[in-house]
Fold each of these.
Amino acid sequence: MAGDSDASAVPDYLARLRLDRRVFAVLGGGNGIGRQACHALAQAGARVLCVDRDAARAKAVADEIGGTPFDADVTRRAGVERVFEEAGKLGPVRGVVDIVGMPHLGPFLDLDDARWQSQLDLVLTHAFLALQVGGRALAAAGGGSMVFVGSMSGVTKIPGQVAYGTAKAALHQLVAAAANELGPSGIRVNAVAPGFARTPRLNAMLGEAQWEAIGRLTALGRAADPSEIAAVILFLACELSSHVTGQVLSPTAASPGR
């Protein structure tokens, strides 16, 4: 009846943030957003396999968080299979965070076949492999969460990023479609599509004047810190987002008026 008080159960929201002893594989965890994601997951209690092509970087971040380092080429099926075999040694795999995907920049007319294929492998093919191999691992564990890092390049047009933007747009579609197929197995699949974030790689490429110009194009007046992207990843990885799947979240909104 109208006016009746709400007697529905109230969950422990902070408990939904916890990932205690859940095994997560972080692909591209050795630097920037990946490093911050490893820290975020570990602080929430997860057991983290820090995966990077660079063994030294993987070990450095794993040492920081008390995780397990692992080096692999995740653009190849054999490498991805090795990742999940290793992750399974830590326990049932309940989560994947995938940050892999450096852009190949340059004019579209100068893009050769090899560079085009390399960009697709680096951004899209490895994500397909992670979804397929990782999806089986999560299904066997009873479900979990898979979070991919897309890009604003996949939802807008940026000069010099035709191959990268095309691959990221396809990644966003892959995430949405895979979410439908993996949902019955209790697996959520989402993506984060950040704008410019002050990662070590971009800090080495851009000066302060360029960062200030980028900031003027955003609603908050500044580029993101990698930790702010990792915070969105943590939200999608934990049970606070238990009814969120097939989504692409863009934490850095552009503001045409700025």
Amino acid sequence: MEFLDPKIEQYVSDHTEKESDILYQLYRETWQKVINPRMLAGNIQGRIISMLSHMIQPKSILEVGTYTGYSAICWAEGLAENGKVHSIDINEELEPLVTRFFEKAGVNHLVKRYYGNAMDHIPTMKQEWDIVFLDADKSNYLNYYNMVIDQVRPGGYIIADNVLWSGKVIEDPATFDEDTKAIDAYNKYTQEDERVQSVLFPVRDGIMISRKL
């Protein structure tokens, strides 16, 4: 589902800071060579991520879902001094591509990578998070949220991507597939959770930003 008139979307793009040459190269190579390139953040969302990172100036970010590394590079742009992005992905086959572009972007030392099941990694990561970014398997969004909420500092953020799920969340609930059910449940849960303040932004495929109170 296209949420915006294509002319409005083009206007938004025309009036948003352009991605770096390195990010553009990564975008093109992902679309040319990698399965499911729609998973890539892209320029507008990437610039939003970069802006949020610069605003918050985080020391510690947990990213669940590295994919080809586009969003991790954007998060790294606004890190505080000695800050770190900790990024988990299930697909180790993408590691050479990710490494190559992290090195090109000069952020390889800023991103610590983990491969395997995030449900196994997260409990071992005993530290406080300024930002947690969820962009992996939708069926586990609520599990990830509840695993990290106590480790997010007061005033920190849990940010979830794809929470509009191509518009499927507004269809008849009787027709929901498992991923749509999981995303709808996540959206409802974060709105009702008194530990956070949540706003759903209709950017690209939907971004839920939850600030821990």
Amino acid sequence: MTEYEITGRAKGGIARAESLSADERKAIAKRAAAGRWGLKATHKGNFHEDFGIDVDCYVLDDERKTAVISQRGMGEVLGLGKGGSRLPNFIKRGNISPYLGHELNEKLQNPLIFQAPTLGTNQPPTKTHGYDITMLIDLCKAIIRAEEDGALTERQANIVKQAHVIINASAKAGIQMHKILHRLA
């Protein structure tokens, strides 16, 4: 057998590929790329105008067109400072974790991984960790509950202040954040 002869499973794979339509092959390729890269952000937005919070958000190319905020952006908007590890470190602390609940804690521990839009034509894709934008409100509510119970430290007062700003801004606007980002689409 030469190196160019095709046998067994490879032969079956080729036959299957030839039997698929162009749209089916494209869908399979898209799923494979998503497996390698996670999801892809179709574009970047910001909700400074609507909420007075200057943080970058993205809309993913999934079926729901999920609006996400990067892990770094989530930490920044909460006043945790710059850096992608600030938010995970904050949620692992004993004083906030009991207020998150199992579901929110699980989602925060397992961020969405997506490919952010590149800044230039010759730039490589960037793998970004982020969260469904609605989780920001859930996290702010948990922070406020922890504050009400006296579970947070004085050093975390700025985080509590930001949580109140975010909750009040979203309530005042009367708009869900993910709808704003869909409008940017």
